[in-house]
Amino acid sequence: MGACCTKDGGCTGSMGDLVEWKEDEAGEEIDIRRGDDGDLIRLKGPSSFTSMYSQQGRKGINQDAMTVWEDLSGEKEMFFCGIFDGHGPQGHRVAHHVRDNLPSKLSAALKVSQRHQRKYSKVDVDITDTDDDSSGNCNSRVDIKDRPRNPYSQNISLASWEGSFVKSFKETDEELCLNSSIDSFCSGTTAVTIVKQGRHLIIANLGDSRAVLCTRGDNNQLLPIQLTVDLKPDVPSEAERIMNCRGRVFAMEGQPDVHRIWMPDEDCPGLAMSRAFGDFCLKDCGLISVPEVSYRNLTINDEFVVLATDGVWDVLTNNEVIKIVSSAKKPSMAAKLLVNHAVKTWRCKYPSSKVDDCTVICLFLKSQPTT
User: Fold this and answer.
1) pLDDT digits (tens), the chain, 371 positions
2) Is 326 a domain residue?
3) What phi and psi, each to the nearest 5 degrees, are found at residue 215?
């Protein structure tokens, strides 16, 4: 693929050919590209299943990035959604680099796993069943189309999913380290990503952005289920790893609730998350780019998933977020509605603070109209 020159981030990676760039009737930008495998790469604008929106805060350039890939790896109705919250002097460039390169690396890793899966599936199909049936025919052959379908019969196993995510995150971080055009020594980004295929939802998280599922309870009420852990330095298992690597964890005097990672002998850089892409000054001090991967089997009660940067979660609860999204008159406008609420809440709660960048992707689990 050729380099992708985006309006907000310059030429940052391999993203495919431009399919559509325009403004809709509401003045919102739509930016869609096509990948090598037929993937539809959405950087801005809604689809039948997604709503996405990002707004710059008051701290300078918007360091958030987001993307939705439809038909990932050429697989029909396989969705990849990712949100990246950059930090540091070149955090925006790191976030764009990861946005533009991580999905294609994940796609490549998935293809390798799928080839292995098909190889072993073929061996399995060639083995005849030996269970007795009522007619006494012990060696009756079961045709593949009559076999009970294993949840992953046409997909890779959960362990392979985790391996593919870990591999692609590692390769993306290594490539970032070698990219001399981006100074990522003290700049980095979070990543909260999901892949949905059928009823399978795989979540991979790095840092303190968050994914929340909206589902319906016994009385049809909307309930939030947090799918990720905010990976911050004060999480006990994270703090233990950091300190075992000689990194230090403590909060600054003026921010007692915000624990940060510090180098062994210097009071810098004070990173408020325990996992991230980039930030290579801390990679020997316990900061890692290994994602926490989890799985959820979706049900008919599940409505949508919200991915958002901490600019949203710092001021709104999980319950408030799902109520705002579900109240949108048009699902296509849900992400913008949520961002607007977050910005207003920032101004009310912290009038003397600068509003953070706010970025949201909503993945609706049942098709929704875009108009």
Assistant:
1) 333 334 444 444 455 555 454 555 555 678 788 887 777 888 888 888 999 999 998 888 999 999 999 988 888 889 999 999 999 999 999 999 999 999 999 999 988 877 766 665 544 434 334 344 433 333 333 332 333 344 444 455 778 899 999 999 999 999 999 999 999 999 999 999 999 999 999 999 999 999 999 999 999 999 999 999 999 999 999 999 999 999 999 999 888 999 999 999 888 899 999 999 999 999 999 999 999 999 999 999 999 999 999 999 999 999 999 999 999 999 999 999 999 999 999 999 988 888 899 999 999 998 654 54
2) yes
3) -130, 170
Contact 70, 47 (CB under 8 A): yes
Answer yes or no: do 181 and 210 share one domain: yes
pTM equals 0.83
- Residue 155 sits in a domain whose CATH number is 3.60.40.10
- 193 with 293, same domain? yes
The residues with which 41 forms a beta bridge, in sequence order, are 33, 69
Q: Residue 97 region, left (φ>0) first, then alpha (ψ -120 to 50), else beta?
A: alpha
Token match 């991580």: residue? Answer: 102
Tokens of 45: 């604008």
Print the domain residue range for 244.
232-272
What is the domain count for the chain?
A: 2
**Domain end: 272, 297, 325, which one?**
272
Q: Are 78 and 71 in contact (CB under 8 A)?
A: yes
Beta strands in the chain (DSSP E): 3-6, 10-14, 17-23, 29-34, 40-44, 50-55, 64-70, 78-87, 188-189, 191-197, 200-206, 210-216, 222-226, 248-251, 259-262, 269-271, 277-278, 292-297, 302-308, 358-364
- 3-class SS at 224? strand
Tens-place pLDDT, residues 248-269: 999 998 889 999 999 998 888 9
Q: Note whether residue 133 is domain-resident.
A: no
Identify whether residues 76 and 162 lie together within a single domain: yes
Nearest to 68 by CA among 121, 94, 30: 30
User: Does residue 148 share a domain with residue 66?
Assistant: yes
Which residue, among 269, 231, 235, has the nearest Cα to 252 in the 3D structure?
269
DSSP state, 88? S
